[in-house]
Amino acid sequence: MDCLMGIDLGSTSLKAVAYDLAGNLIASGSRPTERFHPDPAHPDWTVWRPEQIWGGTAAAIAEAVAGLPAAAQLRGVAVTGMGMDGLPIDQQGQWLYPLISWLDPRTVPQMQWWLDRIGAEKQFAIGGNPLWPINSALRIRWVAEHEPDIYRRTYKWLLIEDFLNYMLCGRCVTDYSMASCTLLFDQRTRQWSEELIGLSEIRPEILCEVLPSGTWIGEVHRRAAEATGLPVGTPVILGGHDHLCGTLPVGAFRPGVALDVTGTWETVKTTTDTPVLKDELRRAGMTVQAHVVPGLHSIWGGNVAGEMVEWYRRQLVGSDDKLAAETLSWELLMGEAEAVPPGAGGVLFLPHMSGASCPIVDGQSLGVFTGLTPRATRGHMLRAIIEGLDYQFLDTVLALENSLGSRLERVVAVGGAIRNTFWMQNKADVIGRPIETPRIEEATPLGAALLAGIGVGLYRDAEDACQHVYREGETYLPDPQRTARYTDWFELYRQLYPATATLNHRIFKEFTT
């Protein structure tokens, strides 16, 4: 039996998952991703230790390999995961500094330097990136400024997936989707940008060779085989950024489809045949990124989402109250919210508790409840949160459509939220379009495994791979009467931000800075 493995490097866990060619999970392993705070003088500095990333992943792979049936033949592996975290290695392949985590705030000064020297407009026009402190080039500049000896000794800067590939097969290479995260990649040429590299004052020789996802890059060598249990000579295929790998099993890599991924964050993305580098997308907080499917690009934006629902339950339950946690189950709370009529009795929620990222870009915006009366219950409050998140989702979809000049008729949803039927139905009612929820679990490592299958010739291309594994699930159809009411209330929602922005900015400066 032929099988493929996807290795997923996430902020919470390091996973290795083996699938047959029809996408059935046949073995898996997992280890936690451990955060470290290396400097007592800077307690908010957060890193991933390379030895833990490699050791944990190797153990997860070994667990998955041990679970394979005797008849299984592992035909290839591919790595996916986080986008921007990386580390320097020297010419002997020794890591010189831990991976600065996306949770680490130390590179804010480097972002300001980048804004002053290169500017947000030029950066987006070439690289498709909005500027965030977590972008890879800003970490490189931090090392150059604060650890000059390490920077001088750096042979290559490896993004986290590149690091795993190096540990498996010894090759320093990255893919288009990961290179897109660095601030140094040209979306039109799909090569490193000489202009951005020159302006950044980063040494170009430390950047890896860039190749398309699905490219054969080497074979598992003896030392890696001893650590992981993978057979020596197992093909290593170039994977890509996690959220784009996740589009492959659900068919959301096809142009004209909107993919909604809802977990702690909610990201909304679509695919284009060419890089659309319009400044209106930058102003809406969107990212343009080379896709893991050769020749395609992705446009996406995101906001914190599920975390606000979790916040609501934490306030009701309390962090240590086990009895309350059992009594106030998600089923009970969501049932209360569903029992409240659409519109939540006039309670509106602006979901900016962690700032606003897309299509409103305002880090100083704050969450708002309005329309509260003595009649409001906890069911009204939770329904208002769900509706506010779904209004934000609609706002993001409309921003994408306005920039592209076309309507995205097909919406596919994945992520933890799809298990909540009330939330999914409300989302369909708010947007006024059907929402498909394919029966695909662990879409991200499966997408990486499909790239491995493409790389070794078991699938012709992404379309062929998707047809082998796609499983139709529930489709939520909008109720026309509810959609008509939500269309009116959406205009009320859109007035919340401009009505409260000045006040929220003053509160932000007074209490959070």
* Net shape: globular
- Whole-number mean pLDDT: 94
Number of domains: 3
CATH superfamily of the largest domain: ATPase, nucleotide binding domain
Number of helices: 19
Total number of strands: 23
Give a verbal description of the structure:
With 513 residues, the chain is of the alpha+beta class. The mean pLDDT is 94. It has a 7-stranded mixed sheet. It has a 6-stranded mixed sheet with strand order 3-2-1-5-14-13. The protein has a two-stranded antiparallel ribbon with strand order 4-7. A hairpin with a 2-residue loop joins β15 and β16. It is 41% helix and 21% strand. It contains 19 helices and 23 strands. α2 crosses α4, α14 crosses α15 and α16 crosses α19. The chain folds into 3 domains: 244 residues, 2-Layer Sandwich (Nucleotidyltransferase, domain 5); 119 residues, Nucleotidyltransferase, domain 5, CATH 3.30.420; 125 residues, Nucleotidyltransferase, domain 5 (2-Layer Sandwich).
Give a concise summary.
Helix content is 41%, strand content 21%.
Topology summary:
Layout: E1 2-9, E2 13-20, E3 25-32, E4 47-48, H1 50-66, E5 73-81, E6 86-89, E7 99-100, H2 108-117, H3 120-127, H4 136-146, H5 148-153, E8 156-159, H6 160-169, E9 173-175, H7 176-179, E10 185-186, E11 191-192, H8 194-200, E12 209-211, E13 216-219, H9 222-228, E14 235-241, H10 242-245, E15 257-262, E16 265-272, H11 279-283, E17 287-290, E18 297-304, H12 306-317, H13 322-327, H14 330-339, E19 348-350, E20 368-370, H15 378-404, E21 410-414, H16 421-431, E22 435-437, H17 443-455, H18 462-469, E23 474-476, H19 480-511
Parallel strand pairs: 1-5, 5-14, 9-12, 15-21, 21-22
Antiparallel strand pairs: 1-2, 2-3, 4-7, 6-8, 10-11, 13-14, 15-16, 16-18, 17-18, 19-20, 22-23
